[in-house]
Design brief:
The structure holds two protein chains of two kinds. Chain A is α+β, with helices and mostly antiparallel strands. Chain A contains six helices and nine strands, in the order βαββαββαββααββα. The C terminus of chain A is likely disordered. Chain B is mainly α. In chain B, 74% of the residues lie in helices and 0% in strands. Classes of the chains: A alpha+beta, B mainly alpha. At the A-B interface, strand 2, helix 2 and helix 3 of A face helix 3 and helix 10 of B.
Chain lengths: 187, 288
């Protein structure tokens, strides 16, 4: 099965929030219901610049939200492993929010359901990239499709401020050859 | 996750009322099995159990964004604990309704005993599953068996209290009272464990979902201990006083349970990493 990954390079991101704005525009969501968020990372050794982390749903390999959802509103797309949410089925119990280790599921007050990144699966089906990736002009946020499991180890799984959940196995990776590699501090 | 604690209020009331309703039914079922109850006493207990169950169902629907979509919650029964809770709870409510009907139409029929026992088993199973629903890998304060057993202990305390009220045999009263003391002491012991766990988590306040309610959690868990002691002293007093105190004990447990929610999120990880960095910088400056 092919798998899609978000690959992020914190040394290139300067926190413009363009990815957040693109996500809001494409998915027609309100500004306070961000599916993608930009976090300010703690300072790293040898680097006094502020560093950022852009993160949305990580479309985990073993998604806890899918396990938790009583209505089967959260489902894994068999073709590529994207975790999609069927809002028509959602009853708004917010149990998935409790189960998500990444706080990636958002309460949508207007629809009284939860909402989350669907990796722009409709755009993917048309051969386009997710809106956030397409908008990121610094190249910090990238999108990669892998066919084999071996290729997954070409990137870092965690940096300071982002712990890789071994049970959920999030599909978010970080570039190894960062200018000021935050993982050096992690070690 | 929703940061407003008010969202948890319907859940606090639900997880208080439903175990009490189940406890009432289990107590009645045990009394029927030991022959300590007649139909005229049984019926009101079943009515109260049914009333509490209906109230609990109404209250729990208030926390749903779309209560009309409630029936869809059975789709995930193969993998979701929440679905299983609804299935067990539904079976309990259905059997309870049939028991009430049979208690009216054929009170002397042995079918009533079988029905009451089956309802009680489903009640106990539901109480257990209510706790297991929250045993999520992400929820640091709710992991494990101890937090899961809160609803079961609530049901058992209510059931034993009902049995004490109905029993007339002095020897049986002593043995039921001993069981009641045992469950009460177990509940108090678990409260101490939960308090210890919470104080451990509290040191890293970034992970608390409701950091403003730290004092409330400590007061509720700490307050359960003197309250349990008071229950021991008022056991001989009218049933209603002991029942109200047990109810208060359960409410305090549920408030503490929901208010003690703690989990690691990207935001808490980043805040934690910042704190570590700050501490390391201060330490190195102090060493220089």
């Amino acid at each position: 099965m092919k798998q899609h990954f978000f690959v992020f390079d914190p040394s290139l991101c300067f926190g413009c929030q363009g990815c957040v704005a693109a996500c809001i525009n494409v998915n027609h969501i309100k500004g306070d219901q961000q599916w993608r968020k930009v976090f300010k990372l703690p300072p790293h050794h040898g680097n006094h610049d502020t560093m950022y982390l852009s993160m949305a749903c990580n479309h985990c390999e073993n998604p806890p939200c899918v396990q938790a959802c009583p209505a089967n509103a959260m489902q894994v797309r068999q073709a590529d492993g994207i975790v999609i949410l069927d809002q028509d089925r959602c009853l708004g119990c917010r149990y998935c929010q409790m189960a998500c280790p990444f706080d990636a599921i958002v309460w949508m007050e207007d629809t009284k359901t939860v909402g989350k990144c669907n990796m722009c699966c409709e755009r993917l089906d048309k051969g386009q990239e997710p809106a956030c990736v397409e908008t990121c002009f610094s190249g910090a946020l990238q999108f990669v499709t892998l066919e084999t499991d071996e290729e997954k180890d070409d990137w870092l799984k965690e940096i300071i401020g982002f712990d890789h959940d071994k049970e959920a196995k999030p599909r978010l990776r970080f570039v190894k050859d960062l200018k000021n590699n935050p993982s050096e501090q992690k070690k | 996750m929703q940061e407003k604690f008010s969202h948890a209020i319907p859940l606090i009331l639900f997880t208080t009322l439903l175990p009490v309703a189940m406890g009432l039914e289990i107590g009645a079922a045990l009394a029927v099995c030991t022959g300590e109850i007649n139909t005229s006493t049984l019926r009101p207990i079943l009515y109260w159990s049914g009333g509490f169950s209906i109230l609990a169902a109404v209250l729990v629907s208030l926390h749903l964004g779309r209560p009309t979509k409630g029936p869809t919650s059975l789709r995930g029964v193969l993998h979701s604990c929440l679905s299983r809770e609804i299935v067990f709870g539904g079976c309990f409510a259905g059997l309870l309704f049939v028991s009430i009907v049979v208690a009216h139409t054929a009170p002397e029929n042995s079918l009533l005993t079988v029905l009451l026992v089956c309802t009680g088993i489903f009640g106990l199973a539901t109480s257990f599953v209510i706790g297991r629903v929250y045993d999520l890998a992400t929820q640091l304060s709710w992991r494990g068996l101890v937090p899961s057993l809160g609803s079961v202990l609530a049901s058992l305390l209510t059931a034993l209290l009902i049995l004490l009220m109905l029993n007339r045999d002095a020897e049986q009263i002593t043995s039921v009272r001993n069981y009641f003391y045992l469950v009460l002491i177990l509940d108090a012991f678990f409260s101490v464990m939960k308090l210890q766990n919470y104080l451990h988590l509290k040191r890293n306040s970034n992970i608390l979902t409701y950091p403003r309610y730290q004092t409330l959690v400590i007061l509720c868990l700490g307050g359960k201990l003197p309250l349990a002691a008071i229950v021991l002293f008022v056991m001989q007093k009218p049933f209603l006083i002991t029942f109200s105190l047990i109810g208060l004990l359960i409410v305090l447990d549920r408030i503490a349970f929901y208010a003690s929610a703690a989990r690691r999120t990207p935001r808490s990880n980043i805040a934690g990493a910042k704190d570590q960095r700050m501490q390391a910088a201060l330490n190195s400056k102090a060493n220089d």
